[in-house]
Each structure stands twice: as structure tokens, then as C-alpha cells.
Amino acid sequence: MKPEEFLLKDYELKVRFLSDHFQRMWQRFNFFLTLETALVGGKVLIKGDQLSTELAVAGGFVAITWYVFGAEDRYLVRIYRQHVDDVVALLRETMPKEHALPADYRHAAEVTRSTVDLRARDRKDKTLTGMKGLLWRVSGWRSQNASVTAWAALFPLVVLALWIALLLLSLGRSQ
Fold this sequence. Notes:
Layout: H1 3-45, H2 53-94, H3 112-124, H4 130-139, H5 148-174
């Protein structure tokens, strides 16, 4: 097997692994979101004046567990994207000149450079003004610092803060 054939197969496997990881990641996110929703729904549907300390502790425990899974998932996404970057760099080095990848080629896991280029293209597009431009920007955007994969870990921390607030309220009312 030639090195470029191996690297091409490796690239396909790494992209598949990243894609499969995204699927598992969002499945876990949905599981924890459903569990937290059930806990909150249980509190809302069950009438009573007392805030339940046990419910707040259980919700906090679920949120901490959710955070651990989300942070690990986010970290693995970053690693798997780097693996794809690495294999593409090796492919560039090993491919014969006549089959070289174009300089502007973007692989499946590349996000950062494409985001920068898309923003620059949108700024140059003279049709994206007024309401159309506003709708265009509001309906599709990305933040490197708060990407959706980052929220897989950040959202559970927000939920944890809410459970802590409820716990403090329930302890304050019981005294």
C-alpha cells in the first residue's frame, strides 16, 4: 500500500470517527437535557410550597455528571479535529505533485479558516444590507469562543448554578 493510499484511508476513518463522536455527543446531551427537564417538570407539576432540598441535590448531581460528559466530549472533538488536520497535512506532503491538493482545499473537520473566510465574503457582499443583511447575520453565525460544542459543557454549568440557587433557597426556607 502506498503512503498516500494509507493516509487517504486514515483520513476517511478519522472523519468517520469524528462524525460518529458528534452523534454520540448529542445523544448524551439530549439524554441529560431530558433528565433535567423531567426533574424540573416534576417540581413544577407537583404542587407544594416547599422547595425540595433532595430535588436540588439530585438536579445538581445530574448537572455535574452532564458537565463532565460534555467537557470530555468537547475535548475529544478538539482532538479528533486535530487528527484530521494532521492527516491532511501528511497527505499534502506525500501526494505526488500532479495530484497535490489545492492550497485553498478545506477538509471535513476544518472550521476556523472557513469561518474567517465566510465572514470576509459576507462583508464584501453588497446585497447583504438592511433587513436582508440583518436576517442573514441573525439566522446563521458561529462564535469560536462559544461554539455549540463548547455549550455541550457550558450549558450544564448554567443548569448547575440554577440548582445551587434552588438548594440555597430551600435551605434558607427550612431555617
